[in-house]
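RETRY 2/3 - previous attempt timed out on the joint model. Re-submitting the same 735-residue input unchanged.
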Amino acid sequence: MSSYLIKGARVLGGDPADLLLRDGRIAAIGESLSATGAEVLDATGLIALPGLVDLHTHLREPGREDAETVETGSRAAALGGFTAVHAMANTDPVADTAGVVEQVWRLGQEAGLVDVVPVGAVTVGLRGERLAELGAMADSAARVRVFSDDGICVSDPALMRRALEYVKAFDGVVAQHAEEPRLTVGAQMHEGDRSAKLGLTGWPAAAEEAIIARDVLLAQHVGARLHVCHVSTAGSVEILRWAKARGVDVTAEVTPHHLLLTDACAEGYDPVFKVNPPLRTDGDVTALRHGLADGTIDAVATDHAPHAVEDKECEWAQARPGMLGLEQALAIVQDTMVETGLLDWAGVADRMSVRPAAIARLAGHGRPLAPGEPANLVLLDPAARSVVDPAALASRSRNSPYAGRELPGRVVATFLRGVPTVLDGKAQR
Amino acid sequence: MKRHLLEAGDLDRVDATLVLDTAAQIEAALTGREVKKLPTLRGRTVVNLFYEDSTRTRISFELAAKRLSADVINFSAKGSSVSKGESLKDTALTLEAMGSDAIVIRHGASGAPHQLASWVRGSVVNAGDGTHEHPTQALLDAYTIRRRLGRLEGVRVAIVGDVLHSRVARSNVVLLHTLGAEVTLIAPPTLLPVGIGSWPAEVSYDLDAVLPKVDVVMMLRVQAERMTASFFPSAREYSRRYGLDARRMAVLGDEAIVMHPGPMNRGMEIAADVADSVRSTIVEQVGNGVSVRMAVLYLLLGGAPS
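RETRY 2/3 succeeded.
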């Protein structure tokens, strides 16, 4: 295995240092390191962060390989600086058995670009009727620890309670898609001034907040861990803050798009901006940014949701919800959190690597950049700026809401256990 | 004028007045003529692309285009483009390849005309999209009010009924405001959208309190199936609280008129004797619709051939 000597990288945005990667681990960090036989990488001006961990990715395989595959999604992830992604369960067939999660896990191993960690469905077929074999998925080769019916809320409170309790046996966590379904029948966008004007059925903030409020109470009652997917409203941030203050074992994620975009994007009826939960208001965006900054929201998760052209180039009401996120996630966080002074690079590492790995109980990721640790890291150039071109993305789909937008930062290199998956901004396989 | 008419907000006061004045000129030009036809759009092709059943609006647009001597193609596709198997975009590009100069679209999905406008080079006219807008209905309503009352500035208009699901209400609120009228929306709170506070209109839940103060009452169609979704308890209670019957009509001012975009639910939102009364402009609205749509097509297409 070749070794790499990274010269002059600013670890977590600190002073320049050299990092020697050898045998899949960080062998040394210091000034003026030298190593014979090591490939030398000039990292002057680059920032080194631990490899990013995404708690929420849709890789679409099996079932919609025309929209994304484990391989193409893995490549997009590596180019975005990720070394591990959690593949959501709403595939076809649904990842609700040990067989399906092992298949996804193996496909990830074969692609070899990031660690693909399957998420198991909470209920059989995502139907919200009875529990899937959560223990079998936990015990499988895929070692599932995160369970989610994402895309659909586990809305039955009794079933949710049982799921929260049951996964305690293997230190699992239920990641809830918080959406009271009776309040969002036919919903198309955030319910407010703009939905009233556009004549699109509204998705009220209360539909998310009501489920989060219920679930934090349930989690406290049964002493279980709860993770909340894609928090999108100011009210949700308040409820989470309250729950954490009460000692509830709850964690939460926010997507890059909810940190940047608002329901104003719906005004041209371009379905690329249709997403669930929907884009909210300026006030929500501000609250989410501050919630992420103060730690009320633990993690940034992409909810990367590739869709085929025909599922987006149609009437808004018929379009599938979701948008790409893996390749621009770090840029959006730099734009919305770092350049606004809300988070430093150590904070970015915490919210995009350390905490998501901890929530998922994922060994080997989200570790400090220190000698002896696995060499999972990303090098980024914070001074670069570029305009997003959907045609140039590695994802098989093109539904990027950032098309034509200039964003800061560029992922220069990503290392997975000492092996470069990305060098000079290009995927290595 | 903009190239498309997608929503009432596409028209500023000058443009909206131009449409109404043009409609009046067209009407005057055709009055008393044996052949009710103008040669203005000869050689131009107008496509009526209707994804929803609407005899009234489709015929109105068809007549308007024919009276301007345009070639008219009617394309009806029930249900969504998706269920039909061809996407809206593919259909639009096909029609354009056949040489359409304007597409008049009625669609069940809000925003479909906006998307269409981004795909084709010709003009797009929104003939009603989902629960969003129906701008030519608002134009014909404004035309009718101006004809009856002689003005729009300062006219007080009550719009009563299912505002939440009404594209007619959305277009009328915007257009009437543009033209200087004062709009009050009246409905049970369940049938008013969250976010209505940002509209340029007053809101009331009390029809009886508003009626004596208005010059125009515009009743909206209320679909009985709304009560199954608990928007209101029963048709009878709705009609008692928000229906326009003879008793309520009696409190209106002498000049006040009663409007309805049709189709009516007689006995639900409007009593039969009200619909057929002298105050009612309901039949007149239909006739004015043709003149106003002629004006719209003329102004959008009347320039040099593309």
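Chain A touches chain B through 24 residues (CB under 8 Å). Closing ticket.
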